[in-house]
Specification:
Radius of gyration: 34 Å
Number of helices: 2
Strand content: 15-25%
Shape: rod-shaped
Largest sheet: 4 strands, antiparallel
Number of strands: 4
Structural class: alpha+beta
Length: 88
């Protein structure tokens, strides 16, 4: 049987090379550019005395569910259409 002997210089050299190799292999990934977040979310829901309203803030469309009915009756609407009807 052969006896295996390693001197201290070889141990430190091997550990240093392994540490350097691990540091080079584990580079952090480049940061992805994040899109800015709007403070106002796209959909907003409001409840009141007359019912529930869900508003799409980007298009101006909304749906309304008035209280007083047993089954939900969602009614669609659009702010631009309503404004155009009132100015005529």
């Amino acid at each position: 049987m052969k006896t295996l002997t390693i001197d201290l210089k070889s141990v430190f050299l091997g550990a240093g090379l392994m540490g350097g190799l691990l540091l080079m292999a584990n580079k952090p990934a480049p940061q992805a550019v994040q899109q800015p977040v709007d403070e106002v979310r796209r959909y907003q829901a409001v409840t009141g005395e007359r019912g529930v309203t869900i508003l799409d803030t980007k298009t101006g469309r909304f749906i309304v569910d008035p209280y007083g009915f047993q089954n939900p009756r969602w009614t669609k609407g659009d702010f631009e259409e309503i404004h155009a009807r009132q100015t005529k």
